[in-house]
């Protein structure tokens, strides 16, 4: 994998003007008094370095044909490592991560002046870490005071995210293969959840089934799992997962595995008792139809807005057929009558971040044409909250269907197509009943959420 990061750095250098780029690792965040959250590396930092320890800095210097990659890392300290585990250390940063030079993190600020002096341009993140930005610009200000001595500060400033987003949005072969593995694990987890669900089960229990299948295969959770039964499915980012599942209706499960920092993101909505009934089935079929239309539209050269629009038109037709709205599809879209029932876009880029880097519009009002190698989720939905403006027979129904799609020259490859979503396929998969009844019950008194 070391070659993958080297090639990424070469592409990044090719986009840089002469100057210096600086990245800092993600912060370690405190969970409780003396316990930290599990560390997760900043995706841009990982993309260019493959380095996944905290408290490090990466510097990329370009002067004419000269390229230099420097890492500042936490030194290996045997006494500390008894508590925190083995660290890479300074020498290994050169050997294992391809750095041209490496130094202890504690020396970064002392050496910062050398990197900034007479650099034409500075690339860094803005609005992300105010203390870090302040330290850098204090040094820039000091250099400006020395211009009469022929010592110059950077003249140009660029947000490094703008450069990296254009690189990250097109996936390399290795990243696609890793994503396929994440999708494969996610599919196993969904199929297991479908065979576990039953009335009376806790949402948290179904969540545990799903996450167990991912973690036992070496995956991590790409984001907090949404396990929403009944009316909870009308809350887009419902995450408490704290209710018991009712005797009928649907469960909306939205989750995904992360493998080697690459995410998957899938949603399936399926019946609690294994059989689709009305009115849930009619709503489900319209969402599935909208997803099919969007996936058929998705290919290189088509814009993100066109993909969204194709699904939106279908959903508006469905809202009329379901007796929710009246009027023509054009009128419903122009007047935004659909928004109480479909309030999000058709999907998002997927990669090292669940909502990955990449622009959706090249300028105001002009949607970006999609390119082969992009991965985008296609996730239409219809949501009918328990509210007076919703027809009574639809209140409390929420349906979303989401797949991960790799854009190709002539269409797209649905990376999660093996996860059942046709109503008859879901019913067939769930026909054997729930295996949950065969497990020993949780007997600790007061153990429920």
Overall 3D shape: globular
Mean pLDDT: 95
Total strands: the figure is 21
- How large is the count of helical segments? 13
Structurally, the number of domains stands at: 2
CATH class wording of the largest domain? Alpha Beta
Radius of gyration: 25 Å
**N-end to C-end Cα span:** 43 Å
Q: What is the CATH superfamily classification of the largest domain?
A: Creatinase/methionine aminopeptidase superfamily
Taking the sheet with the most strands, its summary is: 6 strands, mixed
Low-confidence stretches: none
What fraction of the residues are assigned to beta strands by DSSP? 15-25%
Strand order of the largest sheet: 6-5-4-1-7-8
Give the class from helix and strand content and strand pairing.
alpha+beta
């Amino acid at each position: 994998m070391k070659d993958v990061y080297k090639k990424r750095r070469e592409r990044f250098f090719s986009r840089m003007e002469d100057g210096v780029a600086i990245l800092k690792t993600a912060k370690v965040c405190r969970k409780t008094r003396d316990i930290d959250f599990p560390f997760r590396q900043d995706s841009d930092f990982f993309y260019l370095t493959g380095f996944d320890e905290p408290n490090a800095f990466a510097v990329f210097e370009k002067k004419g044909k000269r390229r230099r990659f420097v890492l500042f890392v936490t030194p290996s300290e045997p006494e500390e490592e008894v508590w925190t585990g083995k660290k890479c250390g300074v020498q290994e940063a050169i050997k294992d991560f391809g750095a041209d030079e490496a130094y202890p993190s504690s020396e970064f600020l002392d050496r910062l002046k050398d990197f900034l002096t007479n650099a034409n341009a500075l690339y860094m993140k803005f609005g992300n870490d105010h203390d870090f930005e302040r330290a850098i610009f204090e040094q820039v200000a000091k250099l400006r005071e020395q211009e009469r001595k022929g010592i110059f500060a950077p003249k140009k400033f660029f947000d490094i995210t703008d450069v990296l987003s254009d690189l990250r949005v097109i996936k390399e072969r290795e990243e696609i293969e890793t994503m396929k593995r994440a999708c494969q694990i996610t599919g196993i987890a969904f199929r297991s959840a479908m065979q576990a669900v039953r009335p009376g089960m806790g949402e948290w229990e179904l969540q545990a089934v799903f996450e167990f299948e991912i973690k036992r295969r070496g995956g991590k959770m790409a984001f907090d799992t949404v396990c929403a039964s009944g009316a909870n499915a009308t809350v887009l980012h419902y995450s408490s997962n704290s209710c018991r599942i009712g005797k009928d209706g649907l469960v909306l499960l939205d989750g995904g595995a992360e493998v080697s920092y690459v995410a998957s993101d899938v949603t399936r909505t399926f019946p609690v008792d294994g059989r689709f009934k009305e009115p849930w089935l009619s709503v489900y079929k319209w969402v599935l139809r909208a997803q099919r239309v969007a996936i058929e539209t998705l290919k290189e050269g088509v814009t993100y807005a066109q993909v969204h629009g194709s699904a939106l038109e279908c959903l508006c037709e469905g809202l009329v057929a379901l007796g929710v709205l009246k009027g023509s599809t054009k009128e419903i879209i122009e007047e935004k009558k659909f928004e109480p029932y479909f309030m999000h876009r058709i999907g998002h880029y997927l990669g090292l971040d669940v909502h990955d880097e990449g622009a959706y519009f090249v300028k105001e009002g002009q949607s970006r044409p999609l390119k082969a190698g992009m991965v985008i989720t296609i996730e239409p939905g219809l949501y009918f909250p328990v509210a007076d403006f919703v027809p009574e027979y639809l209140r409390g129904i929420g349906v979303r269907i989401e797949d991960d799609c790799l854009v190709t020259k002539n269409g797209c490859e649905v990376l999660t197509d093996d996860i059942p979503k046709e109503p008859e396929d879901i019913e067939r998969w769930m026909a054997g009943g729930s295996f949950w009844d065969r497990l020993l019950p949780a007997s600790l008194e007061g153990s429920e959420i």
